[in-house]
């Protein structure tokens, strides 16, 4: 090992030393540079229950990092002449409803198909209760509406990838897991990698997924489905994933050159804007280098897979409940290994709150349901959308507008509109996937509980969610209770303006957050709609007995 490599290893040890604990779950990390394994270590516990530590041989879920394997599987069938990725999904799953159009398999791969996601809808309606077998497809077939017409924009959709997996099964005639094993994993020598459809199965050397219980301990993390397929079912090790990353940026053993060109082709939306999410892989710059990556998250675990192909730098981080952000950690690894001389200028500094106080506030579109909060976070202007649970994102000032750090949908821009009278920002123009919409500033003061709840309490039915919803005043709070197919879940409603509420989870069964907008006919509440980061205009209609 050279002195430079030794120094890098020391820096990586420092970066990860906080996870080296015997009383908490942890992570496994591996880094390869220029064809040599530079770093390969486990931290924390694979199983607190059995006192087993994480090691490089520990198998963990990679979550949504599985998605590009699903895309490649479909392209392999296309190479066989058995499947057309530009055909509509109903060609292979005719039981799906024809709604705003028939999204192609390719559009499902790029999350531009427009379908709602079974996972988002069922988590909303029943929390983390496990769907019965067949429930995933049933949830997709049940939908009467979509998030958007195919190709218009991008909203992340796990359900689309589950449908892709079912199409692969029907065309190939074998289980999805078997197809991946025979056509990809066996060919690559990835002997510790497989697709596992649920968290009830006991697999050799696999880490337990840990979820905080809110009391200083942990619960077992279980995905609420028996049918996790191409959206996030793969289990692997850092060694197998390093082998795959080298293949990803190097000569191919699986897939033709034409297939791999498609894998790395960015989509275009109906606005003409270009996205960054190709076929299960994201291509984004980090400073002056191009990165190819995809993260993953499961209940009690997370992952980041990243390669900087030009410099043969491969990074894989797998966690089983560590209080860690693998995306940030992987970026820090890139900074440490490549250094400023290669990476060039550091990212632009976030917009400072000082001098931009008039921008802070809450904004909403009654047309689309989009809800945006711009606030101060440690002296910086941050933005969050749809009352989502993710950390607020900093804004970067550019000539085109205020840019949010690029996500899966590409660049998100905010353009303030001011009142000439007081230079007060009265509205913002939000540009997402190249489509612009206006969000009006909401009042600084929210309605009182009595005003907000007037005419709202009662029972509602949501067809697409397969759920009944009850709104009530309980112990001085406005509450929303959902009764879904497999369970019930509660939320706290917080009024932010007339007929506009945010909702937040109550209890361990609930995980979703979002915005509820009331619709009235005259003074009577007739329905409400729910909008989250991955679901749009999910409607609940008042049951007539409450009129």
From TrEMBL:
Membrane-spanning residues: none
Domain (Beta-lactamase-related): residue spans on this chain: 13-325
Pfam families reported in the protein's UniProt record: Beta-lactamase (PF00144)
InterPro entries the UniProt entry points to: AmpC-like, Beta-lactam-related, Beta-lactam/transpept-like
This protein's name: Beta-lactamase
Native source species: Burkholderia lata (strain ATCC 17760 / DSM 23089 / LMG 22485 / NCIMB 9086 / R18194 / 383)
